[in-house]
Write a structure and sequence with these properties.
heterodimer; A: six-stranded mixed sheet; globular; B: 113 residues; mainly beta; seven-stranded mixed sheet
């Protein structure tokens, strides 16, 4: 069965510094990987995805993520954090071509300090 | 990003009562999903729905749950007899055919007393 791990419950970073939110996955087939962000009292907003192709994918709000097959990781990154990036971040995997539903990680709360 | 709407935003009910949560469709989004998020826990898949049929469901989606999309109207999740442990945020998600990204609604907060 597929699973997603986000090893850090909380990540704190100073505004302007680079940020990384970690995600590792375990699947039996080719993974489709996604990052979503959840602001307080809001739904999940799509940030970016990896399906195939370049290992570095760019998404919304200046975020990017790097797919590393050997390490089964898909870490979310941003070169310069903003206070407004403070939110809950979820990594999700869908195993292609079977299974249309997502398996989500437990979430990582990012706090960007001014 | 396509806007996904859900109603109500918050539902309070007594244990044992039936609740219906609604997701407003977008015309070219044919795949629907329900997820739930118990407070402080991760988002969990409940069910996926395509062409008026359930295509996948999780172990959570037991006989107390049902989904339907009558006549192309709202996509609904019904909980027949709510339990305290059904208290959670329920998210609807939609996906356009031929794409991989699911777009989530703002959720309905269900509180069972």
């Amino acid at each position: 069965a597929q699973s997603v791990a986000q090893p850090e419950d909380q990540v704190n970073v100073a505004e302007g510094n680079p940020l990384t939110v970690k995600c590792t996955y375990s699947v039996s087939g080719n993974p489709y990987l996604f990052w979503y962000v959840q602001y307080p009292n809001r739904g999940l907003q799509f940030l970016l995805k990896y399906i195939t192709g370049d290992n570095l994918v760019k998404g919304s709000y200046g975020f990017e993520a790097e797919f590393n097959k050997s390490q089964t990781s898909f870490h979310l990154k941003k070169p310069s954090a903003l206070v407004s990036d403070s939110a809950l971040y979820f990594c999700a995997v869908r195993v292609a071509p079977y299974g249309q539903n997502f398996v989500f990680g437990p979430g990582t709360r990012l706090s960007v300090l001014p | 990003e396509p806007e996904v709407t859900q109603t109500p935003s918050h539902q309070v009910t007594q244990m044992g009562q039936e609740v219906i949560l609604r997701c407003v469709p977008i015309s070219n989004h044919l795949y629907f999903y329900w997820y739930r998020q118990i407070l402080g826990q991760k988002v969990e898949f409940l069910v996926s729905f395509y062409n008026n049929e359930i295509s996948e469901k999780s172990e959570i989606f037991d006989d107390q749950f049902s989904v339907e999309r009558p006549d192309g109207s709202n996509f609904t999740l019904k909980i027949r007899s709510t339990k305290l442990e059904d208290s959670a945020m329920y998210f609807c998600a939609r996906r356009r055919q031929g794409t991989d990204t699911q777009y989530f609604g703002p959720g309905t907060r269900l509180t069972v007393l």
